[in-house]
Every structure is written in C-alpha cells, then in structure tokens.
Amino acid sequence: MAVNLWFGLLLTLLAGMLSGNCMLPMKFARRWPFEATWLVFSLVSLVVLPWGLALAMVGHLGAVYSALPASVFLAPLGFGAGWGIAQVLFGLSIARLGMALGYAIIVGLGALLGTLVPLFVKNRDVIGTGRGTLILSGIAIMVLGIAVAARAGKAREGSGRSTAGGSYGAALGVAVLCGLMAPMLNYAFAFGQRIAEEAVRQGSSPESAGYAVWPIALAGGLIPNVAYSFWLLTRNGTWKHFRGRWSPDVWFGCLMGIFWMGAFATYGVSSVYLGALGTSVGWALFQIFMIVTANLSGVLTGEWKGAPAAAKRGLWIGLALLFVATVVIAAGNR
C-alpha cells in the first residue's frame, strides 16, 4: 500500500506539472489569433487524444459502452458540458490575468469544490475520523496558500487593471465563475466510474479502465469549446489562417492538447493508486502541483520580473503553504 501511495503521488506530481504548463505554449504563438490556437487545442485534447487513448488502452471499448444503460452516461456528459463552458472562460482568464493569478483563482476554487464534493458524496464515512480531520486540515491550508498566492498576483499587477485590457474586477469575476464550474470535469470522472467498473469487468486493468470515461466526459465539453472558437473565427474573419500553408503556431495548439490530455490521463491512473479517496484527495494534490508548476512557469517566463518585493515574498509564502498542504493531505490518505 505504501508503494502504491508513493507511486500515486509521483503520478499526481507528473499530472500537475503537465497541466500547469498546458497553457504555456499559447504565450509563444505569434501569428495565429487565440481562437485558431484554441480550436486546434480543443480538437486534439477533447477528440483525438481521449479516443485514441481509450481505443489503445481499453479492450472491447464498444462492448463496454453498449453493455451500459444510457442513464450511466448522463452525469459525465452533463458535467463535461459544464466544464466545457469553464474551459472557454479559463482561456480568457489566463489571457487577461496572466498564468500565476489566473491559475491561483480558478484552480483554487476548482480544487476546493472538486475535492469536497466527491468526498462528501462518495466517502462521507471518512468525515469525522482522524483521516478526515487531516484531509480537511490540509484542504484548509491549501485554500490559504492559494489565497496568499492570489493576493501576491494582484500585488504584482499593481495598477488594478487586467494584463490584456479591461477592468481588473471584470477579469476577476470571469475567473471566479470559471473556478466554480472548473471542477465539473472531476465530477464527470468521479460519477462516471460505472463505466470504468464495466471496463474492468470486461477484462481491462483498473489502471487503464479510467481511459474509458474520458471520451464520454470530454464529449460534453467539446461543443462549448468548438462553438466558441467557430464564433470567434467567424466574427473576426480569421478562418483565413486555416487556408493555404498553416503557420507553425498549429504545433503550439497541438502541444497544449498533448500536455492537457496527458495530465488528465495521468491523473486518472494516479487516482487508482491513491485508493478509495483518489478522486477527492487525488484531485486536491493534482491542483496543488498544478498551481505550483504554473507559478514557477510564470516566474521563469518573466511574469514576475519587476514585481514588488512584497509580492514576490507573498508568492513564495503561498507556495510554501501549498507544500505543507501536500504533506498533510498525503498523510490523511495513508
């Protein structure tokens, strides 16, 4: 069990690193507008990779789906659609607030709700035990760390304006709404486990069975993302970027999709090794590692260059609190 726990933590760390950097390639796209890059990212991450991985990793995928009643697919599809709306808002928030602050607000709310909802719905018996106390304490420290990092991000901005124009308050409101809806993807995975159980029943390993859930969950998120990209491409007259010879920026969109889907595929496997609380504790750890990675990437790409010393100090204090939260939550999962 100890080996599985540590392996689960290692996989969760890898997932957080991939997810924390999934928006980084967008910063280097020079010729394509946001909507063109986002369309490529959406198709790669929500169609090509989830279906490719499911077909490769789950035997008899068609038989798994056909053996289940339609009602089993409603929850992952519905939650996936809600997450798809959040995903559109996520891209806008990162563009307006920057990686560090955008991730802190969105992922912070997503981490809190995405951890507590599966915990209280599926593992209510843990609440009130020593393990539950440790986990809830770790979540409280996590929220404090995120809040400190978010405040540091606001101090970094200094002027009270968003990085891409418009009021700071409006950009912040979009980020908060996105954070409330972002954990719906974890709900889709957590409440779509009957699909994974059927895959195991038909011969798949527990580690690979989760791949059968992702095509269904992400199908719900596909429509909002593609529809929004189509609307922007039409409104802005930017379909021309897909005519003739494509810009090398297409590869940045593909790389974003590979990082993103790689992160969630790895998280799905890590949740198995983390045990019965994998979709709650695992989600919290996944978000922590994602925030730390995104902030460090923001530092390395110059987002914090010239920031006040107090803001930088707040960032490192926030990251230190997230490290403490990791230790406490991992201890509660033992």
Description:
This protein is mainly alpha-helical and 334 residues long. The chain has one domain (2-333). 76% of the residues lie in helices and 0% in strands. It has 14 helices and no strands. The protein has helices at residues 2-20, 34-57, 61-66, 71-97, 99-122, 130-157, 168-181, 184-190, 193-201, 206-209, 214-235, 249-273, 281-300, 309-333. Helix 2 (34-57) packs across helix 12. The N and C termini lie close together (8 Å). The model is unreliable at 159-165 (pLDDT under 50).
Overall SS class: mainly alpha
**Contiguous runs where pLDDT drops below 50 for at least 5 residues:** 159-165
Strand percentage lies at under 5%
As a percent range, the share of helical residues equals over 70%
What string, H for helix and E for strand, traces the elements in order? HHHHHHHHHHHHHH
Task: Write down the domain tally.
Answer: 1
Total strands: 0
Major β-sheet annotation: none
Shape: globular
Rg calculated over all Cα atoms: 20 Å
Q: How confident is the prediction overall: mean pLDDT?
A: 84
In terms of quaternary structure, what is this?
A: single chain
**Total of DSSP H or I helical runs spanning 4+ residues:** 14
Distance between the amino and carboxyl termini: 8 Å
Question: Which SSEs are present, and which pair or pack?
Answer:
Elements: H1 2-20, H2 34-57, H3 61-66, H4 71-97, H5 99-122, H6 130-157, H7 168-181, H8 184-190, H9 193-201, H10 206-209, H11 214-235, H12 249-273, H13 281-300, H14 309-333
